[in-house]
Structure formats: structure tokens, C-alpha cells
Amino acid sequence: MSDCIFCKIANGQIPSTSIYEDDKVKVIFDISPATLGHALVLPKSHAANVFEIDDELLAHAHIVAKKVATALKEATGCKGVNILQNNGEVAGQSVFHLHIHVIPRYDDDDAHIKWTPGTQDTEKLAEIAEKVKAVL
Ligand code: 5GP
Ligand code: ZN
């Protein structure tokens, strides 16, 4: 994708500080970090989101996210790490090249990765379960 910023960063057409790189992914720091050390795992080949990406590439990117999380924990002294990935504008995705966020968490940080717990609608869930099973 010639106009995709993460394609350009992942493939070195735009310079960046990389903390890990192999033939399939590059890991950089987020330009507007949620917390100190917030990193992004960028696959080198373009896929907009989880609905498009090749399974093996996604699996590899998640293994790298795990390694980066472990290294960041050691390097920053953070107490925990969120690993998350947004798909679609409604889900908070703003760059449409799949990426995995690795966000170190500190006591009293400003990341606010929370939702309001709801209640289950068992009837609707049963319907959804049937439809999901038919697709899978
Ligand atoms: P999303 O909202 O799509 O899940 O996450 C996009 C992330 O990419 C945001 O956290 C944003 O700060 C980061 N970002 C956007 N443009 C750039 C860039 O040019 N360089 C870097 N390092 N991060 C970027
Ligand atoms: Zn791209």
C-alpha cells in the first residue's frame, strides 16, 4: 500500500527508532504513547485489520508482542502490560494497517483501558452462539 504510513515505517521508507526487527515485523515506539514505553508491533506486509491478515503472520506478530512485553517489563520496571489490537473505526482503530499495542502499566498511570461491566442477555447470546458455531 503506497500511501500507508505503517507500511512505510515497517519497510524503512520512513525512518524510525526500532526496538526489534525481523523479516516479518518491526517494533517501534508509539508517537503518542499511552504510557512510557508504549510500543507497536507492525507486520511488514499490509493487512488493514484482523479480518484480512494471514494467520501465520498474526501468530508471529503476537509471539513478538509477548517477547517485547517481557523485555519492556524488565526495562521499565512496569507492573503489568496490556497487549491489545483495534479493528475498525468503531473499535478505536485510527491507522488501518494492523498493529499490536504493547502498553506497559504503572501504578496511577493515565492509560484508562477499562469498560463498564454490563449484564448478559442470555437469549441473545444463545442466538449468537448458534450463528458463531455455524461460521466456525
Ligand atoms: P490505533 O488507534 O489504530 O489502534 O493505533 C494507532 C496508533 O498509532 C496510535 O496510538 C498513534 O499514536 C500511533 N501512530 C500514528 N501515527 C504514527 C506514526 O507516524 N509513528 C508512530 N510511531 N506512531 C504512530
Ligand atoms: Zn500498510
Q: How would you describe this protein?
A:
There is one protein chain. The protein has one domain (5-135): 2-Layer Sandwich (HIT family, subunit A), CATH 3.30.428. Helix content is 31%, strand content 18%. The chain has helices at 5-10, 55-76, 122-135; strands at residues 18-21, 25-29, 39-43, 80-84, 100-105. Strands 1-2-3-5-4 form a five-stranded antiparallel sheet. A hairpin with a 3-residue loop joins β1 (18-21) and β2. The longest helix has 22 residues, at 55-76. Bound molecules: guanosine-5'-monophosphate and zinc ion (ZN). Guanosine-5'-monophosphate binds at residues 5, 28, 30-32, 40, 86, 92-95.
Topology:
Elements: H1 5-10, E1 18-21, E2 25-29, E3 39-43, H2 55-76, E4 80-84, E5 100-105, H3 122-135
The protein binds guanosine-5'-monophosphate and zinc ion.
Q: pLDDT below 50 for ≥5 consecutive residues: which ranges?
A: none
Number of strands: 5
Rg (CA only) = 17 Å
What is the molecular shape?
globular
With helices defined by DSSP (H or I, 4 residues minimum), what is the helix count? 3
Cα distance spanning the termini: 30 Å
Helical residue percent band = 25-40%
State the assembly state of the protein chains. Answer: single chain
Largest sheet properties: 5 strands, antiparallel
Enumerate the distinct ligands.
guanosine-5'-monophosphate, zinc ion
What class, by secondary structure content? alpha+beta
Instruction: State the name of the first-level CATH class.
Output: Alpha Beta
